[in-house]
Amino acid sequence: MAKGWNNQSNTRSRARGAKVRVKTARGRKPSSTRWLQRQLNDPYVAEAQRLGYRSRAAFKLAEIDDRYQILKGATRVVDLGCAPGGWTQVLTQRLPETTQIIGIDLQEVEPIAGAKMWVLDFLSEGAEEELMAELNGPADIVLSDMANSATGHRKTDQMRTMALCEAALDFAIKVLAEGGTFVAKVLQGGADNDLMRRLQTHFSSVKHLKPPSSRADSKEWFVVAQGFRHAKSARADEAADDNAE
Ligand SMILES: C[S@@+](CC[C@H](N)C(=O)[O-])C[C@H]1O[C@@H](n2cnc3c(N)ncnc32)[C@H](O)[C@@H]1O
């Protein structure tokens, strides 16, 4: 568990290290039984409940911040794919009240004091403009934990995750302030070559990591790009436009 987090479980069985076994039940699918068993035996789930986090995902952002100090000094933050709100909770805890925090998701999110969140499909027409209109100025951080529900078809899931990541990067390039940070979920193996090239053009530092709280059997990784380079981005965009003509 990440440094700085209390990793003592609050359940008796977890405290003794005993594994909770879930019996199969009539009408419950084997996959649901497996999910339930995993939840009950996951120390991060227990810890998230104890600390009042809406999702165990909260620990991932906390761990990324502990490692790279991405939140330091941020005045405007965008949280893409924010439901049920774990990352947003970490943002409101770690950032001053004056920081503008806005989040969107396909699903409705229970309000969190200090953040504005609304239902919006990031891939829908006009979504970027809506977000930009809401921002008081250039953003310091664009976060994307967006993920589609898995289809089980590896290639399809990979393509959909990368499409979300690329769309988030396009948006970040439009709204980030000089020196800004972009964090996004990618899949095992990290950003593909094209995405990596783009990240390296627009940011001075690009890192991949799998936070300790990310499940070992999950294919998710995160890309952390810091030091957004405005002028270099503008030149890269111009060159791309010239090539397209
Ligand atoms: C892993 S969850 C995010 C968890 C969140 N970071 C937290 O800490 O609670 C992924 C979210 O991405 C959202 N999502 C997927 N596609 C999206 C899209 N096109 N626009 C907005 N949100 C999207 C899903 O609805 C889902 O709630």
What does the model show?
By secondary structure, the chain is α/β, with parallel strands linked by helices. It folds into 2 domains: 40 residues, no CATH class; 180 residues, Rossmann fold, CATH 3.40.50. 40% of the residues lie in helices and 20% in strands. The protein has 9 helices and 7 strands, in the order ααααβαββαβαβαββα. Strands 3-2-1-4-5-7-6 form a 7-stranded mixed beta sheet, sandwiched between helices. α4 crosses α5. The longest helix has 22 residues. The chain is globular, with a radius of gyration of 19 Å. The termini are far apart. The N terminus is likely disordered. Bound molecules: S-adenosylmethionine. The site of S-adenosylmethionine has 23 residues, from α5 and β2.
Helix and strand content put the structural class at: alpha/beta
Could you state the order of secondary-structure elements as H and E?
A: HHHHEHEEHEHEHEEH
Q: What's the CATH topology name of the largest domain?
A: Rossmann fold
Estimated radius of gyration: 19 Å
CATH superfamily of the largest domain: Vaccinia Virus protein VP39
Helical proportion, percent range: 40-55%
Level-2 CATH architecture of the largest domain:
3-Layer(aba) Sandwich
How many separate structural domains? Answer: 2
Distance between the termini: 51 Å
Task: Provide the residue-averaged pLDDT.
Answer: 86
CATH class of the largest domain: Alpha Beta
The bound ligands are:
S-adenosylmethionine
Proportion of strand residues: 15-25%
Write down the overall geometry: globular
- Indicate the low-confidence ranges by residue numbers: 2-16
Number of strands: 7
The helix count comes to: 9
Query: How are the strands ordered across the major sheet?
Result: 3-2-1-4-5-7-6
Largest sheet: 7 strands, mixed
